[in-house]
Each structure stands twice: as structure tokens, then as C-alpha cells.
Amino acid sequence: MEYMKKQVQTYRTGKVITDQFYIDDDYNVPDVKSDVMRIILGEGMLDVEDMKVVENYIRVTGKMNFKVLYVTEEGESRLSSLEGRIPFEEMIYTEQVPEGMPFIKASNIDLTVTTIHSRKLNLKALVELQVSSDGMDDLEVTTDILSDAPLYKRYAAKQMLRMLTSKKDTYRIKEEVAISGTKENVGTLLWTDVTSRKLDTRLGTDEMLIQGELMLFCFYESLEGKTDWIEQVIPYEGRIECYGAQDNMYHQIYPELADVNIDVRMDEDGEMRLLGVEATLELRLIVYEEENEDVLEDVYSLDQTCIPRITEETFEKLLMQNHSKCKVIEQLSLPEIKDSMLQVCHSSGKIQLERTEVVDGGIQIEGVLHISFLYVKADDVIPFDTWQGMVPFSYLLESNETSSDMTYDLTYAVEQLSIGLLGSDEIEIKAVLAFNSFLKQPVRVSNIEEVDFEPVDMEEMERRPGIVGYIVQDGDMLWDLAKRYSTTVEGIMEVNGLESEQVKPGDKILIFKENISIL
């Protein structure tokens, strides 16, 4: 006897753990930097260097990189900036030891920078981490049994997601931007911001194609001491090798823009009017192939008693992969900056999800869009300032394929953001939020690992009636009736003149025990 088995590799993720902790530290202004009079803008970014599982804890270590834009105190007030890093270590408690490799699914930093005095700053950051774990399982299902003795077998068609590959990769972006003729030459970079927008990925033969945009903002001081800025969209596209991939497969992707570097370069005329932009798009990629497999569900023999050894296995099937967008439009009254805001230089936003819930028709998403913008104000001494606030949003990610037992994964990003002035103290916020969803449902399979055979109890067989008149009940199948009454589907169909195996409740049929001849 030979068992035909199919290997299916599945991808699994652990429970998402949300952890919050504070980073509170003082920072001495370097000697080469001017004294600090007032903070204009501060921003922090987490750089996770190592994650280790220690019993029921995940130890996360790394650095918080920060940058500060401030007004100098020495002589004539000017803008200056500084950068630094603060190491951190956090122990995240888990109820169960993660089975796979832990990873950071999302992170958010709310940084507040205050001056202790002109040479010392205090940095307080509320850090929120979403930590999960991932791994792979090699599962095996029996698709058939080959035997010399006649066996009657029933198969069940199952749709499964088979993981083709799971990998980490990087795509390096290198671009050069020329400053328009209306702008000043670059002397000193004061503040830079590069964000990834409109990222689109699709699979091809042995590759994944990438297309997206970088939104570049540079706030700088010219050689003559004038303050100016540029904001420009930088498109990019490329490919990453992914052996075995095909365009009809599915994929999940977790992107993160890292190692951003901007440097000033000289153009052909010898003027500092070029900006070199380099960044690394770090990707965690999972590729799936959808398979339809006929799994052996049950077996019996007329000559022997079959006793299947059954294990319950859980696979997954794809319900939906969706890319959707949510528009946010909000008008705000800002009396605190009335008559002082002249122009918005640059705006940035980040999404914080508060709640997601499966409802009829899709996934209900509730969250907050955090907004920050740098603006020009009517002040000859310090003509720049920032405003920070938040806008709540609610969005139904529509899906016709939802179930109570499904699992789903969301990645999200701010795709577009603009701030418009409506009056002396009113602004209009327009944003487009992109949500990528991957919905899966468990597929439970009663897998026959092996079949034991025992001799038929002849006394029991003789006690069974040779002919049975049967009224079909709801849920009955001819295969089940054939197994129950020791006959075959073909035998029942022949006796009752049936052209197909389909029967409905209330049908009256005769069932003859196999090898019983009727005179």
C-alpha cells in the first residue's frame, strides 16, 4: 500500500502585542552648535538594532535618532539644526513565548523637545511598538492511497494558500534633484524630510516590480544667509529578484524607508544647486501560490474494516487582497495663529489606528491622522513656526468576502497631504490614506495519515439486512449510504436507475447489500 502525500508550506504570524514606553533623557548641545533660544521643530525615529526572546519577554534594543530645528540665541536670531541619538532597551512581556522570529510591525514616536538652558535640551518621547512574530510550517496531507485490494475513496476539494517564499530584501534609491532657477543656492541644510508615497508592487516572472514616489522637502540657508526651501516629488521604479514568482501569485509586503541621506552637490556651472538623495527601501516579502487540491477525506472496503488514523490540520485560503484609499477632508479654525500665518512651507502626517473590526460588508477602521506643518508667519525676528494637531477619521474597507473566523493584515500610509489657507485663522486639510489588506480564512482538513485494516466481523455482516428501503434525509450523500450499508455508489445508482449521485431529501431508494442476489 502506498500513500500519496502533498507537502504544503504555510506562513503564520503570532499575536500582535502593543507596547508603550518612555524615553526621557537630557542632551548637551555640541560645542560646534549655536546656543538654543527656542525650539521650532523636533522629530524622532526608531532604529531597532536587535530583538531577542528571553523567556516570556522580547528584548528590544536600539537607538532613537532625533533632529531638532531651533532659533539661535547668539546675536541676530537665525535658524539652526542639530541631530543626535539616544540608546534604549525595552523588555516587552508576552503571555506565550513566540514560536517564530519576532519583528516590529509598526512603530510610532511622539517626541517633545524642551530647553533646560541654552546648552542643554530635554527630550521626552512616547514610543509605541507593535510587535509580532512570524514563521513557517511544513504540513502534509494525504491525497490518495494506492492498494492492490479494492478501496472506495471519497475526496474533498480544498483551496489552500501555499507559501512560495518569505524573504527580506532591500531596494536602493539613488536620485539627483536640480533646484529651480527661482531658488537660492544651497549653503547649509537646516531640515530635510523624505517620505515614501504611492508605493505600488506587483509580481512578475522571477521578480517583483516596484514603483513609487519620494516626497522631498529641504529647508536650507543660502550662502548669503537667506532662508529658503524646496519641495519636490521624485518618482522611482525598479525590480527585486524573487525566484519562482509568477504574475498570477499573491504577495504581502511590509515596506520601510531607512538610511535616508541628502547631500548638496555642485552643478555644471560650479554652483551648489543639486541635491543627491539616497535611501534604502527595506522590504519584508511573503509570496503565496493558490492551489486547489483534492484531499482524501474517507475510505472503506467491502472485504476489510478500514480504521483511518486522522489528524486535524489547519491551512489557509485567500479571501481577498485589496488596495483601497480613504479621503480625509477637514476644515479647522486655529485662533491661536490668527493673522500670523502667511504661507505653509511643508506638511507631514502619520496614521495611528485606534480600532479595527470586522463588520458586515468589510472592515471598519477608526483612527487618527496626526498633522504637522511648518509655516511662514508675520514676525521679522523669527518668521517660521510649526503647528501640530490631529484629525479623526472613520473608514469602511469594503469586502464581500468576510467571515467571523478570518484573519486579516493591514498596512497603511499617507499617500497625499495638502494644507490650504482659507482665511486668517482657518485651514483646510486634504489627505488620501492608502490601506493594503490581505484577508485569509482557516481551512480545516481531517487528514488521513494512515489506515489500519482488520477482518470483517462476519456475524455482524450476516445480521445486517440484505435490502433496505431508505428515505433520503437532509445532508445524505450516496457515498455515505454506500459505506453504511456495505455496498457501492455505482450499485445504488444501478438498482434505482439514477443518472447522477445527486439525491434530495424525501427521495425513496432501495439499497442492496453487495453480493446479495435478488431473484
Order of helices and strands: EEEEEEEEEEEEEEEEEEEHEHHE
Quaternary structure: single chain
* Estimated helix fraction: under 10%
Distance from first to last alpha carbon: 38 Å
Number of helices: 3
- From the spread of the alpha carbons, the general shape counts as elongated
Total strands: the figure is 21
Low-confidence stretches: none
Largest sheet: 4 strands, antiparallel
Beta-strand content bin: over 45%
Structural class: mainly beta
Mean pLDDT: 90
How many structural domains? 4
Calculate Rg over CA atoms: 33 Å
InterPro entries: LysM, LysM_dom_sf, SipL_SPOCS_dom
Domain LysM: 468-511
Organism: Extibacter muris
Protein name: DUF3794 domain-containing protein
